[in-house]
Amino acid sequence: MSDNQATLAELVIVACAEAYRDNGEIMATGIGPLPRLGTALAKKTFAPELQTTDGECYYGDEPVPPGGRADVVEGYANYDRVFSALWGGRRHSMVGPVQMDRFGQANISVIGSHDKPKVAMLGARGFPGNSICHPNSFFFPNHNARTLVDGEVDFVCMAGYNPARYVGGKPPKGLDLRLIVTNLCVMDFGGPDHQIRVISLHPGVTFEEVQENTGFPLAKIADAIPETRVPNAEELALIDALDPFGVRHKQFKDNPPARRA
Amino acid sequence: MFDKRMSAADVVAQIEDGMTVGIGGWATRRKPMALVRELVRSDVKDLTVVSYGGPDVGLLCAAGKVKKLVFAFVSMDQIPLEPHFRKARQGGTIEVLEIDEGMFHWGLRAAAMDLPFLPTRIGIGTDLLNQSSFTFKTVTSPYADGEELVAMPALNLDVALIHAQRSDEKGNLLVTSPDPLFDELVARAAPKCFASVEKIVSTADLDMRVNARFSLVERARITGVVEAPYGAHPTSADPDYQLDLGHLKEYVGSAESDEAWAAYRARFIDQGEQAYVEAVGGAAAIDALKKPVY
């Protein structure tokens, strides 16, 4: 399957979809076009039980295309209920923080000091609650050491596996960080003491390149790290149908192929 | 006659320097912007603003009304970063208490229930718990689990401002948007809640037997109603009208310089609400705004 026309964006979509395998009947929230298409692909293939919203206040019967609307809606997802659902744990989000550190602690609030930030962004939003109530996965379109940082993130909005921040060193039982998909590789928290670990490299990427672009030491799933799977023809056709406006083509500069030239 | 109708100026006359003002809505959804603009026109200052923030927070920051902000985010959804909020934060000109969206809900609920706090796990493991404006305390479950939980303090407001689609003269409100958001709790968290409404109609015309599910809160919580057609603009009052992305872009431009802000203010705020509706294109243009995608 190495020589089809798949793009890096489509490879990322397939990798994001994998986060939802065997999750059961939960609310799947992918923030940003590629994670959102990942949830949509999972729902259309191996996980039809997933519930996805239109980003406003309804669950769509079918996944809602980026830039589009739900045709048939199947349920109500006003904010009050979304909070209730997420506090109950039956949700898996995939989000794109501005910074993440070795513990999986993530930041979308400020760069610099909290009292007088160099850059003020959104605010913590629902990240603190999400992080300790239900599984979370992550997407980083630019894997580099400014994003995956040395030390700790500037303002911890999402809790991570940092024992220093918990009574007795033990995080709340709901803390469950799963996959990290980037433009270079797929990682998880499966190393010793939840160390972030590379589990697959996108075609043409080396571990050394990933490590050089990461602010903390990474573990490897094996000495020979597998290659991230390139989408097959069936998946490409489905992705095309799920993204009729072609939003995925605009997510990476020049829309590069899945396999580096 | 039992009548709670009043003007936006009457509302603002009840807001004093240093008060804590809660604002309903969420980002670009059903913000009581006509009341916010009236606040901008007033000489009230040093407010503590509590809001699921959008351009309401930005306008009040730009006008120098905010001493302290309690927030989980300030964003305009399709335009993620609110420019005036950003400027105020990066200038270090406002004190903040940053909390999670759910903690915000919990704080309003505690205030609504007249409780000092509600317990939650949210915040554990994050920097929210230790801020220069506030250090959160924890409570230990008195039951067998003994779990240590964050005590989210009540977000007690002095005044709440919300926007609804319809009311009668007595303050019976209908919020017909797909999502009522947390406006019921905002109303309950304050001893005084003022609502701007698209239209004031007779009690019979509320058709409450049919519309009861859209009734926000019992009218005893509502101190005054202000008829303010398009009073949520440039945010949405779906299904009556949608957010105005074009205007929000113009508003973003007003953060580029002091002159740009002065020009925006002169054109859209200083002339009052009737002039505002005309300046943004008139009623027909607002009615024609397309529903955004999220």
* CATH fold call of chain B: Glutaconate Coenzyme A-transferase
Largest sheet data of chain A? 7 strands, mixed
N-to-C SSE series of chain B?
HEHEHEHEHEEEEEEEHEHEHHHH
Which strand-content bin applies to the residues of chain B? 15-25%
> Helix- and strand-based class of chain B?
alpha/beta
Roughly how many Å apart are the termini of chain A? 16 Å
Mean of residue pLDDT values of chain B: 97
Unreliable sequence segments of chain B: none
List the defining traits of the structure above:
heterodimer; A: 261 residues; alpha/beta; globular; B: 294 residues; Glutaconate Coenzyme A-transferase; 8-stranded mixed β-sheet; 13 strands; 29% helix
Fold topology:
The complex is a heterodimer of chains A (261) and B (294).
Chain A lengths: L7 H11 L8 E4 L2 H12 L7 E2 L4 E3 L12 E4 L2 H9 L3 E5 L3 E2 L5 E2 L2 E3 L4 E4 L6 H7 L2 E5 L36 E6 L2 E4 L8 E5 L5 H6 L6 E2 L12 H10 L19
Parallel strand pairs in A: 1-5, 5-10, 10-11, 13-14
Antiparallel strand pairs in A: 2-3, 3-4, 6-7, 8-9, 11-12, 12-13
Helix pairs in contact in A: 1-2, 2-6
Chain B lengths: L7 H6 L6 E4 L9 H9 L5 E5 L3 H8 L3 E6 L11 H8 L4 E4 L2 H12 L4 E4 L9 E2 L2 E2 L2 E3 L7 E6 L5 E9 L5 E2 L8 H6 L3 E9 L7 H4 L12 E4 L17 H9 L4 H12 L3 H7 L3 H5 L7
Parallel strand pairs in B: 1-2, 1-10, 2-3, 3-4, 10-12, 12-13
Antiparallel strand pairs in B: 5-9, 6-7, 8-9, 10-11
